[in-house]
Design a protein that fits this description.
2 domains, 7 strands, 151 residues, elongated, GMP Synthetase, Chain A, domain 3, N-terminal domain of TfIIb, 4-stranded mixed beta sheet, alpha+beta
């Protein structure tokens, strides 16, 4: 079971602490009374998706799939509904994978496994949002770049 606690500090700023003892600051934009001193809760959701799928992909590629991974960046951008509650309705994910002698098939397999089976954040968000994913795989030794979508 997960747990978190948000403690109000001032204006619309909160310190959010996890049950494992980690903390971050959340805040709102000045237009609604915040000071923009931390991530918004909705930005945290996108960050949670990026971190969740990123952990899965690194775990799979460096472990079971034995790939020589040297870098991974997961970029996430979300579109929100116009009406309240302004949930995410569409999310774009870009995986930027770097390594040497990478097997494109194995990289795609890891990305799909994360998105379709392993990442809990992705599974929850799919109930309200369409998630569109693409990848850029860069082989640092061969200089080759492969791009595609996970349709």
């Amino acid at each position: 079971m997960g747990e978190a606690r948000a403690t109000w500090t001032s204006d619309l700023q909160f310190v959010v602490e996890s049950g494992s003892g980690h903390a971050i600051v959340t805040d709102a934009q000045p237009a609604v009374g915040g000071r923009d001193s931390g991530m918004s809760p909705m930005e945290m959701i996108l960050g949670g998706l990026a971190g969740c799928t990123g952990i899965d992909v690194v775990y799979l590629l460096t472990g079971k799939l034995r790939q020589k991974l040297t870098g991974l960046t997961v970029e996430v951008e979300g579109e929100r509904a116009d009406e309240i509650p302004k949930v995410y309705t569409a999310i774009d994910v870009v995986y930027r994978v770097r390594g040497s002698d990478l097997d494109t098939g194995k990289v795609i397999r890891a990305l799909r496994m994360s998105e379709e089976k392993l990442c809990s954040v992705s599974a929850m968000l799919r109930h309200s949002a369409t998630i569109r994913s693409r990848y850029v795989i860069e082989d640092v030794h061969g200089g080759e770049t492969v791009e595609g979508t996970l349709d």
